[in-house]
Every structure is written in C-alpha cells, then in structure tokens.
Specification:
Layout (H helix, E strand, L loop, with lengths): L1 E7 L9 E2 L2 E2 H19 L4 E5 L9 H11 L3 E8 L6 E6 L7 H17 L3 E7 L2 H4 L4 E9 L3 H7 L2 H18 L20 H11 L2 H11 L14 H19 L11 H6 L10 H12 L13 H13 L10 H7 L1
Helix pairs in contact: 1-6, 3-6, 8-9, 9-11
Length: 337
C-alpha cells in the first residue's frame, strides 16, 4: 500500500496568489480533493491518501511536513498555482536532490503526465529551498499548475472540467511512479511489443494464480497469527502479510518491539536492517518475495541471498534510481515496500 500525502498550499488567512477573481488557496484545495477522489475510486486497494487540509484553514509549512513524516508517507505532493506573468506548468524539487534520485525521476514523470492531461506549456523541473520540500523525509514535489495572473491560464483554472484535467494529470503521475493498476485513467497504454514485459508476464501469472505467489502466501501463513488467502494473486493482502512477517523477524532477531500490524509505518522503517549476499533466513525470503512481486527474478524462493538474488537486487536498484551496490538497505527496502 503506497501512502500519498497531498498538500493543497496556503489556506485560511493565507490566500496565496490572487488575480482575475480567484484565489490560489481555493483552486488548489479543489484540485487536491479531486485527486483524492480519483485515487479512492480507481486505486483504493493500492493507495492510501492523507491531506494536510480538506477545508479553508491555515496550516504552517512545518506542520505540513511533520504531518507527512509522522504518517510515514511514500510521496509528498504540494499543490500550487504560480504567479509572476508566466504561462504553463512547472515542478519543483529541493535543491539538494541529485539528478539520479527517485525524487528527480518522479518529478519528471509527474510533469509529463500533467502536461499530457492539460496541454499546459512545459516549464520543466526546477530546484529551490521550499520548506515543505526540505523538511519532508520522503520524495517530495511542489507542482505549480498555471499562472493565476495570466488571463489565459486563469480562465482555464475557473473551468471545472479543466480542474478535472489537472487532477487527472497528478493521478496519472502517481500511477506511473508506483506502477498502480486501476480501473482506468492511468497513463496511455504502451505500444504492443513482440517481447512480453515483466509486468505483463506477472499480470498474466496473477490472473491464473502464480505458483510462486502461492508458495509466498503459504510461507506467510506459517507464522502464528497471520492468515491470508492462498490464491496465487499478489494483492494488498499479500503485501500486508509480508510486512507482518518482516515485523515479526525484526522483533525476533533484533529486538525491535514493533507492533505486528502489517503497516509499513515510521517505526518499522526505522527498524530495518541491511541484508546482503551471504545472508540466510526469513528476512531474505521476504526480500525474495518482494523482488518477485515487483517483477525481478531472485531465483529460488529459498531464503539464501546468493548470486541470482544479488543480481535481481542490483537490477531493481538500477531501475529505481537507487545506489547500485547489491545491498538491501533502508532505501531499497522502502522502495520495494
């Protein structure tokens, strides 16, 4: 389950930018609520959403970041409208972020989808020192969706159907970033290929009941107090079960004293340990299960961190913009989960 934190900018005594009869705080709240609604409608089994505000109220910048951090969000998206006489969309990430990071890659994807949905002029991804980008512990973006003081942009922002497009662009960005599979509205389908992709092969296996997934589910059910459906389909219940096993093993092996609830929250994240080649046991089994579910073949599901598992880890790290060292540290665990 991916956790997406939506932050409609400004609010209450802070109207944000004001021009052409509209206020930034009102428009961005409308966008945020529509994003939440689409995600709940199409991706409810894969995404949890929290918002910094759902009404016209003032919340400080530090409070917004703290809310996302305490919740253990996977991605923070602050929604804004620009001003200054320009035209179009631009995304912002923190100035400390490297070009090879997930944050930079996610920002590019988000921009592509918003531009595609809205037809906005593309002003690119920029870097700055925004408080909400600097104080959040997860990947974060600030989206600037048109210029309120440019009449052509403001006219669009007054149009309810256009606000739907802005919201849809954000949702399509999340869908691409987290490989969400929903009831519709995600990124445009790719052109047919003569060679099946990992995801298409995995989806086919899911539809027929994958024997490896069944073995993973049986492994999960071998733990006292854990009981999930054994159907060969790697859905949210299976992911929750794997997180429960991870919590149990962290408690058993490292005395973490975690609540076994299947929620990948801040305490579980902070308790993660490095796993590398040569490791054996059930933590490695959890790793192998997650790699397989994500479409990276780790070899036998045997709890032995050998060459094939290391190769799968390295490929996963490379494909997700992580440091490619074959060691499963907190960043790799977090991206897998």
């Amino acid at each position: 389950m991916r956790k997406i934190f939506l932050d409609p900018g400004h609010g209450g005594r802070d109207p944000g930018a004001v021009a052409h009869g509209i206020q930034e705080k009102d428009v961005v709240l409308d966008i945020g609520l529509r994003i939440r609604e689409i995600l709940a409608s199409e991706y409810s089994s894969q995404v949890a959403v929290q918002m910094s505000r759902t009404k016209d109220e003032f919340i400080s910048l530090s409070q917004r970041a703290t809310m996302a951090n305490n919740w253990g969000a996977d991605y923070f998206c602050s929604i804004h409208i620009n001003a200054g006489g320009g035209d179009g969309y631009e995304g912002w990430i923190h100035e400390s972020v490297s070009d090879s990071s997930n944050t930079a890659r996610f920002a590019t994807v988000m921009g592509e989808e918003i531009i595609k949905a809205t037809g906005f002029n593309d002003r690119g991804v920029k870097r700055g020192r925004f408080t909400v980008l600097g104080r959040t512990a997860m990947s974060a973006i600030l989206t600037e969706n048109g210029f309120i003081d440019t009449k052509s942009n403001a006219d669009l922002l007054k149009d309810s159907s256009f606000i739907d497009k802005v919201a849809r662009g954000h949702v399509n960005g999340f869908a691409r970033i987290f490989n969400l599979e929903g009831s519709g509205g995600a990124a445009e389908p790719s052109k047919p290929s003569s060679k099946p992709s990992r995801s298409s092969k995995r989806n086919s296996a899911r539809r027929g009941g994958d024997p490896v997934i069944r073995a993973i589910q049986q492994f999960i059910n071998s733990y006292d107090g854990v009981n999930i459906k054994v159907d060969g389909i790697a859905g949210p219940e299976t992911m929750r079960g794997l997180i429960m096993v991870l919590q149990i093993e962290l408690n058993r092996q490292f005395g973490r004293n975690l609540k076994v609830d299947g929620i990948f929250g801040p305490r579980t994240r902070a308790s993660l340990v490095n796993v590398r080649r040569g490791a054996r046991g059930n933590l490695t089994r959890v790793l192998q299960a997650l790699l397989y579910i994500r479409g990276f073949n780790p070899g036998p599901f045997d709890g032995i961190f050998g060459g094939k598992t290391e190769s799968a880890v390295r490929k996963f790290q490379r494909d997700n913009g992580l440091t490619v060292d074959g060691i499963v540290g907190k960043n790799t665990w977090r991206t897998l989960l």
